[in-house]
Amino acid sequence: MKRILVSLLILCGIAIALSAFGWLYFEQKIANPASVSIPDTLAGLPLTDRLTGKQAASDFSQLHGKQFPLTSGAVGVYGNHQAALKGMAAEMVNAMRDKIAKGRSPFTPVGEISDSRRTIYSLESIGQKHFYFQSGNLVVWLAVETDLAETTLQQLKEYYP
């Protein structure tokens, strides 16, 4: 009977040790997710951006608002998504304009400059001129000393057509 009890205790000890090592191994894999390869093209569209390993796992968690115990991962973006990004940039500019117009920001709207490509919103705050506008898929914000505002804005418009 003592032999059986000793054998059971030894087996329990081995099982606990193996479980602990397995858990540590799994924790290490979760802390450092492996990269997964993804194809360079899909449906004839080229791979334009990728996240792998830790970056991909973080992206999954942010996207879903939850932590997942991932040991590997990859995110691929295929094709040119400029149109979607342009729409998002336009929404951001409109949201900034609307929020500033409510008057609960440190910025005072002083006008709009429209050209054939875009509307540039002009603001004042803390002794500076501020301008913001959409350029393609970008939202551009300029904060500049008042005496340099026009020259700097012109250069910025040329750089971000």
Describe the structure.
By secondary structure, the protein is α+β, with helices and mostly antiparallel strands. Helix content is 45%, strand content 30%. The chain folds into 2 domains: 48 residues, no CATH class; 77 residues, no CATH class. The strands form 2 sheets. A 4-stranded mixed β-sheet has the order 1-4-3-2. A hairpin with a 2-residue loop joins strand 2 and strand 3. It starts with a helix and ends with a helix.
Main sheet: which strands, in order across?
1-4-3-2
Mean pLDDT across the residues is 80
Number of helices: 4
Total individual domains: 2
Estimate percent helicity: 40-55%
N-to-C span: 87 Å
| Element-by-element helix/strand order | HEEEHEHEEEEH
How many distinct beta strands?
8
Q: Structural class, from helix and strand content?
A: alpha+beta
- Strand percentage: 25-35%
Q: Biggest sheet, in brief?
A: 4 strands, mixed
Shape field = elongated
Radius of gyration in whole Å, from Cα? Answer: 28 Å
| Uncertain runs | none
